[in-house]
Specification:
single chain, alpha/beta, Rossmann fold, seven-stranded mixed sheet, globular, EC 2.1.1.163, methyltransferase, Demethylmenaquinone methyltransferase
Amino acid sequence: MSKADLSKQPGAVSAMFDDVAKGYDRTNTLLSGGNAGLWRISTTRAVNPQPGERILDLAAGTGTSSASLARSGAHVVAADFSPGMLAVGRDKHGDNPLIEFVEADATGLPFVENEFDAVTMSFGLRNVIEPQKALAELYRVTKPGGRIVICEFSTPTTALVRAGYNAYLRRVMPLFASISSTNSEAYTYLAESIEAWPQQQKLAAWIREAGFVNVAYRNLTAGVVALHRGVKPLPV
């Protein structure tokens, strides 16, 4: 079993996700207390996919988020750097002609400039060794006027919720993961990466620095998760 650390070396992170791929969706549902589905609905609504659009779902994992986006009639490229996650995704959604699975590194995307009407990334940016470089890549492949939506774990908005959430990450989540996951040690990394991740305002600043405008965020579940949005400006 492999476990990445906060150096976030791509090979180690990819191998770790390969290990957890088969039970990933089940474990997510358990560890989120059922909120994972609600966060996915909010993300899909924020992306607002339209029929015929081409959308990049980066860090798509097993394709659950991609399937949600594709219900609109949009063509979704489900990209991830874990072959194991993509294999599970193809098993689940390979018969959907609107979903295309592609192995890709977030810091060097295999797509041309201005290719996508919208780009989105759920719970993946935190695992990238150079998140600002990944945001620059997302900007590059987004069409002018296109939109970005980032859903990521964040900082709870009140001290009471923060205290309870930190206790959950350190004590309760490892216990649940040992029951549900094929690699419970990976969820120790998950807790560490959440605690080390910057607050909402910092991520919003990174998205602006990448070039997006009209950047805003909305807290979900009292700030346990934050939904960030922005638009690539039209040429002047």
